[in-house]
Amino acid sequence: MTAIQAGGLTKRYGGQTVVDTVDLQVEPGRVHALLGPNGSGKTTTVRMLATLLRPDAGSARIAGYDIARETTEVKKRIGSVGQFHAVDPRLTGLENLTMFGRMNGLPARQARTHAGELLERFDLGAAADRLARDYSGGMRRRLDIVAAMVVRPAVLFLDEPTTALDPRSRNQIYGYIKDFVKEGTTVLLTTQYLDEADRLADSVTILDSGRVIATGTPHELTASIGGGLDLIADPRRRHEIDSVLTGFGGIAAPPGDTADETEKTAPLSYSFPGAEIPLLPILRALEEAGIEVHDIGRRRATLDDAFLALTGPTARTHR
């Protein structure tokens, strides 16, 4: 039985179609990543699948149950972690998880015992009796995810679960997700970190303007991309470098969050979808433009390259 099956899923607000005939299929015990630029319909799609929004057209089944006609059965089989904290900051970690257990039908004593066991398992046992408002950002996010797993769901929806977390907290959550999948839970993940999708996902769907524009494994999506080119040069001449590289079919990756154009050298990256990278002609063109290159090299295509090639160079921010 397919864990998630959607056909023609559509949602409109006023005269605008935000999700447009989306088809989706996820096999049990897999991680499927849903990617796309801002406003591409990712969160709306997840909210429909989680029975929080009713589709205007199309249908979907979760663990064999119809999201519109068998909503109660679907809710019994899913867990959901949204972009914002769901736990009550006025309660302790133990009280939060006990409450979620009671909401899912566990008797009071069993809910409290199970809550304690989960806190220990997910390295929150020492903070069990602390108020959630006193948790760090990473601890609260872990508590959110554990709350969704109080009654282990068949399908877990994770909407940008690691946004704004430090690398250590992100790695902890990656480990939890892998454990959940080993235990049989199917995960539908939206993320703004493409390396996260590359690392975790068995398969990927990319949305743009509410429509599916690509689906496949990370390897299948990157295999269709020619590759990438990384170079170190003066970032103050980036526009000139961009002009040269785009003339050879390159797509510039936007500067990173820590880009500093006062520096004399900086790494710059370009994608070359579906084409060989003409390295020597590029070097000659840069030299003719008077641009000094301190280092340059080809690299294998990444999911970032595939995303840029499919959605365009302005779509690097894709929350």
Automatic annotation (TrEMBL):
<keyword id="KW-0472">Membrane</keyword>
<protein>
    <submittedName>
        <fullName>ATP-binding cassette domain-containing protein</fullName>
    </submittedName>
</protein>
<dbReference type="InterPro" id="IPR017871">
    <property type="entry name" value="ABC_transporter-like_CS"/>
</dbReference>
<dbReference type="GO" id="GO:1900753">
    <property type="term" value="P:doxorubicin transport"/>
</dbReference>
<dbReference type="InterPro" id="IPR050763">
    <property type="entry name" value="ABC_transporter_ATP-binding"/>
</dbReference>
<dbReference type="GO" id="GO:0043215">
    <property type="term" value="P:daunorubicin transport"/>
</dbReference>
<keyword id="KW-0547">Nucleotide-binding</keyword>
<keyword id="KW-1278">Translocase</keyword>
<dbReference type="InterPro" id="IPR003593">
    <property type="entry name" value="AAA+_ATPase"/>
</dbReference>
<dbReference type="InterPro" id="IPR027417">
    <property type="entry name" value="P-loop_NTPase"/>
</dbReference>
<feature type="domain" description="ABC transporter">
    <location>
        <begin position="4"/>
        <end position="234"/>
    </location>
</feature>
<keyword id="KW-0046">Antibiotic resistance</keyword>
<keyword id="KW-1003">Cell membrane</keyword>
<keyword id="KW-0067">ATP-binding</keyword>
<dbReference type="GO" id="GO:0005524">
    <property type="term" value="F:ATP binding"/>
</dbReference>
<dbReference type="InterPro" id="IPR003439">
    <property type="entry name" value="ABC_transporter-like_ATP-bd"/>
</dbReference>
<dbReference type="InterPro" id="IPR005894">
    <property type="entry name" value="DrrA"/>
</dbReference>
<dbReference type="GO" id="GO:0005886">
    <property type="term" value="C:plasma membrane"/>
</dbReference>
<dbReference type="GO" id="GO:0046677">
    <property type="term" value="P:response to antibiotic"/>
</dbReference>
<keyword id="KW-0813">Transport</keyword>
<dbReference type="Pfam" id="PF00005">
    <property type="entry name" value="ABC_tran"/>
</dbReference>
<dbReference type="GO" id="GO:0016887">
    <property type="term" value="F:ATP hydrolysis activity"/>
</dbReference>
<comment type="similarity">
    <text>Belongs to the ABC transporter superfamily. Drug exporter-1 (DrugE1) (TC 3.A.1.105) family.</text>
</comment>
